[in-house]
Amino acid sequence: MALSTSAYAQSKFVQSHSAMGTIYSIELYANDAASADHAMQDAFDEIDRVDDLLSNYKPSSELSRINREAPLTPVTTDPETFAFLQRSMDWSRASEGAFDITVGPLLRAWGFFFHAGHVPDESRLATERERVGWQHVMLDARVRSVAFADHREMELDPGSIGKGFAVDRVVTLLRADGVMAALISAGGSTVYALGAPPGTDGWPVIVRDPRDGRGKAETLLLKDTSLSTGACTEKYFIQNGHRYCHIFNPKTGRPMEDVLQSSVIDPSATDSDALSTVVFVMEPKAAKRLLADRPQTEFLVLRASGACDSLHWRGAICRK
Length: 320
Fold this sequence. Notes:
Elements: E1 11-19, E2 22-30, H1 33-54, H2 62-69, E3 75-76, H3 79-94, H4 104-109, H5 122-129, E4 137-140, E5 145-148, H6 162-176, E6 182-186, E7 190-194, E8 203-208, E9 217-222, E10 225-231, E11 236-239, E12 242-245, E13 248-249, E14 254-255, E15 259-266, H7 269-281, H8 284-291, E16 298-303, E17 308-311
Antiparallel strand pairs: 1-2, 2-6, 3-5, 4-5, 6-7, 7-10, 8-9, 10-15, 11-12, 13-14, 15-16, 16-17
C-alpha cells in the first residue's frame, strides 16, 4: 500500500515495538491510520526478521548457528548475513580493532550480557581475551563462508552494529512503501531521520550533554541521515566506588575510562552505530584521521574530564 506523495496533507502517527533487547519507535506521516498501520507493521516485521538473523540470544538465529559451527568448520551463510559480517570486518580493520564484533566473551566475563556486572579475576580475563579478535574471523566471499581461525571458540556479538543495520533495513522498506517522512529510533541509541515533517527542514533530535548535571541538551535538525550515541551513563555498574562502562577497549579487555558519551552522524545507520563505538574507543587524533575523508560523517566525544573532541560537528556543545 503506497502512501500519498502529498506530505503536507498527512498526519503524524507513532507506534513502538520491542525487539533486539530494546524498544523501537517510529513516527511517520501518512494519509490515514490504515496506511500508517500498514507501514508500521511492515517495519516491525522487518526488525523481527533481522533479529531472527542476528540475535545472539536466540539459539535458532543465523548468528548463533555461526557461533556454534564456525570453530569447527567453515559455515556458509545467506547473502544478507554475510554482507552484515563484511561491513563489521570493514570497520574492525579500518579502526584497527577499536570496533570488534567478537567482543562478546568480554561482555560475558564482565557480567554485561545478563545485566549482572562484576569485575572478573585476571585469569578469567586472560582466558576470555584469547577468544576475542576480529582478525581471527575468516570470510570467504566466493562461497559466503565464515570460519574462526585455528578452531577458536569465539562469539560474534552484534550489539554495536546490529540495531543500526535493522534501522537501515526499515528505512529501505518505508521508502518502498512511499513514506516521505519518518523518524525511526532503536531505543534512542540509533535514530534515522527519513525526509522531514511537513513544512520543516528536518526532524529535531536531542543530543544530551552528560557533563551537565541538569542534563542540558542541544537539538539538531536531521534529514535523510542517522545519529548514533554510545553512553556510559546508561549501561554500567559500580563496584568498590568505581564505575565500569559497557563499552570496551578490545585490546585491553577492559571497559573504557574517562569517556562519557560519543555521538556520530552518518548517512548510514549501520555505519553510525559502529562508528559510535569506534570514536568512543580510538584516540581522538586517530579517529579524526580515519574519518577525515568522510565529509558527511560527524562525531562528538564528551569526556569525564570535561574535554570535548569533535569532527565536522554541527552542534554547539563543543563551542561552549
